[in-house]
Model the fold of this input.
Amino acid sequence: MPIKKLHTYIFKEVLTPFLGGIGFFAFVFLLFQMLRLAEELIVNNAPFGLVMKLLWTLILNFLPLGLPLAFLLGVLFAFSRLSGDSEIVAMKAGGMSLASISKPVFGLAILVSMVSLLLNLNWSPWSEVAMRQTLMKIGNRKFVSSINEGTFSSGFFNLIMFTERVNHRIGKMEKVFIFDERDEKHPLTVVAKTGEVIRVQSNEDDLGGVVLQLQDGSIHQSDILNNNYNLANFATYQIYFEIPDAKGNFGYRPKMLKIGDLQNKRNNPNISAAERRELDTDFWRRITVAMAPLLFVFLGMGFGTVRTRGARSSVLLVAFITMALYWQVQVSAIWLGDSGALPPWLALQIPNLLVFLVGGFMYKRANW
Done:
């Protein structure tokens, strides 16, 4: 068989379990999020579009971790099967060296690394921000859920509220009692036959506020300074509440910055040494994670080639253990970089260096 066809064959052998691994790990990852997503959609009446956006941002957030893990799994599965069926032996007998067999695997590793780099530099930070904004939008729809029927509660914008019946799904209430002491000098007591919570939103990106609309009731106001009491009946009475952080303003961490913003902050001469180390550490984290698939070629081929037919079932376990150790070492490396114990560029090379040493040894052993 021509070398080109063999390379195509090996490429497909790795690509198939790699794509399957992405789907499998994404399913496992999202499985743990399903209960929360179902609660947001059903209990809190979150729009289906917001839930789908949250799902999409979660997937993008998962991919920087999922792609290297799926690639390692793909290489392990492919070469475990090729070795178990003696196809590697047949290729070597036909004159192919392990370096030649590795070429299509390295080609796929380069593609995966390029996608990982794009994810880490821009897409993942965008998804981190979008996920937080989406969670904030969904979370800000939970105010109705803080109203409990038959009991006094203060979770709805710090108003003391009592209602006999409440429909959390549509935001309607019956027989409402409200004590509003936001103005301590002029506290209000509002009694109404019915009430409704209405969202006010000027555009898609502005969360706006919430209107509490009451019908058929009365307002009782006490003027403590002048010792006066006022009573007013109403057919419709509205109270507007602005949603906190409606513009989605929240503290940004380095991993939430796109590469351009990250570089601008790194080049800012006015930042502290600790903040600069944190930014440098995150920059090198993105680079080294994107390089990981290239080193996983040695590790995957080394472990996969020397495995026996009966040990294929433990390939998934090997991949999980490897990635768990890799990310644990990376967490330690991030701490070393942030604390200043090592220069960030050096600290973040430690996980990949360990993979290279172990993978290089196993790759060399497979070439014997």
